[in-house]
Amino acid sequence: MLKKIAAVGVLATVAICSGVSVGWAEIKIGYIDSQRIFAEYRETQDAERIYKKEVEAWKAQAAAMEQEIVKMQDELRAQSLMISEEKQREKKLELDKKLDAYQRFMSETFSEDGTAAKRNQELTKPIVEKINSILETMAQEQGIAVVFDIANANIVYAKKEFDLTDAVLAKLLELGQ
């Protein structure tokens, strides 16, 4: 969502700066603070609670795997003088399998396109779509050409009268009832 809004803002800025014959008075703009919307919107808070709980479970699973690996390493070190080379190789192979499983789990779960990222996207996508729909409707109704997100669009100054954040939060509240 934020990238989409930022891209629209950049395109509008480029169009204005490149000499497209649009009068300044004709362009109506607005902005939102997506961080504030996400912080205050109940559905986002619920989604964040669910996500954090799931991440905690994945971290606990990783910690358990780590403990098992450390235990196996300690046992191998402690027994290395007392067991045969063949038994050492077996234990080392078993340890390597555990390490591989741990690394695979970490990669599949916490990588940029892993389970956690996909779950976060799954939880936030409907919320972002709802916000975008509200913004599109408001922009069309109010004749707004561009809506910026002040949370990440590097806006140095904006008049409060262009802030649509409260209106978006009010519409989200209406939809939730």
Structural shape: rod-shaped
CATH class of the largest domain: Alpha Beta
Helix content: over 70%
Structural class: mainly alpha
CATH architectural name of the largest domain: 2-Layer Sandwich
How is the CATH topology of the largest domain named? Protein Binding, DinI Protein, Chain A
What's the number of domains?
Answer: 2
Model description:
The structure is a single chain. The chain has helices at residues 2-17, 34-40, 42-79, 85-110, 115-142, 165-176, and strands at 29-32, 146-149. By secondary structure, the protein is mostly helical. The chain folds into 2 domains: 2-44 and 124-176, Protein Binding, DinI Protein, Chain A (2-Layer Sandwich), CATH 3.30.910.20; 49-117. It has a two-stranded parallel ribbon. The protein is rod-shaped. The two termini are 24 Å apart. Mean pLDDT is 85; it is low at 1-23.
Topology:
Layout: H1 2-17, E1 29-32, H2 34-40, H3 42-79, H4 85-110, H5 115-142, E2 146-149, H6 165-176
Parallel strand pairs: 1-2
Helix pairs in contact: 2-6, 3-4, 3-5
